[in-house]
Write a structure and sequence with these properties.
Length: about 250
């Protein structure tokens, strides 16, 4: 009797558990209608996914002639790391570069606690010399603001960096988004020490999707390199990281 009751309960739980809904694809960058009605023999339309935020996938339409091309796909929350690793050819761009060091003093840790070990997403090296730390978030900070806990985290990375600058890369669809800089100032007003800085830098998804067009990979190589250098630069730009009137 008990087994039968348990079996019925398990069956009921299975039926009542909601099914996970499939993500919805939103074509945020459609091709002009005249281009779609004028497809040449061998051409077909594919979708490139360039951002997935929860149940919404942003996609761009693209025409291809490659029968094996089914459109690019991205991991949930985007594929920023792969893009930067591919674009930035002149430096050693290492993912998950070491922990920022915290340690309990050996003579003052009676509970034998383990110290926290915050880890920046990326460590930027030139000629094997550390130049700074970067972190990536998939929240549009330009539109939605910066949570305080992120600022604390990035402040630690800035203070641990040789340049005393850390960079937050975040995905944005806004054409108005541009660099913002937060100064980590000394609490004592008489201190002459230069403040550390946290740079909030948008990654322009619309422009990025265009630069990754495989049909124009060679012609856009220079533009991709320029964008890559701009994304990791330890200084703020007063303008956007891409031309407002770009036509690539």
């Amino acid at each position: 009797m008990q087994r039968k009751l348990i079996s019925r309960i398990e069956l009921l739980e299975t039926r009542m558990t909601p099914k996970k809904p499939h993500p919805w694809v939103f074509i945020s960058h459609p091709l002009p209608d005249e281009r779609l009605v004028d497809l040449k023999p061998g051409e077909r339309l594919v979708l490139d996914y360039f951002r997935q935020d929860s149940l919404l996938i942003n996609a761009a339409e693209r025409v291809t002639t490659d029968p094996m091309d089914h459109g690019r796909r991205c991991e949930p929350e985007g594929y920023l790391e792969d893009v930067i690793r591919e674009l930035h050819e002149d430096c050693y761009f290492r993912s998950r570069g070491g922990s920022c060091k915290f340690a309990y003093a050996p003579d003052a840790n009676p509970r034998q606690r383990r110290a926290p070990a915050p880890r920046p997403d990326y460590a930027l090296f030139y000629n094997k010399v550390l130049h700074g730390f970067l972190d990536a978030k998939y929240r549009d900070v330009w539109e939605r603001g910066l949570p305080a806990e992120w600022l604390y985290q990035l402040s630690i990375y800035a203070l641990a960096s040789p340049s005393e600058v850390s960079v937050l890369l975040y995905a944005s669809m806004s054409t108005e988004a541009r660099d913002e800089r937060i100064e980590v100032r000394q609490p004592a007003t008489w201190s002459n020490k230069r403040p550390a800085s946290v740079i909030l830098r948008p990654v322009p998804l619309t422009y990025l999707a265009e630069l990754l067009d495989p049909d124009r990979s060679t012609s856009l190589a220079g533009d991709r390199r320029r964008l890559a250098h701009q994304l990791v630069a330890p200084r703020t730009r007063k303008t956007t990281c891409w031309p407002l009137d770009h036509h690539v």
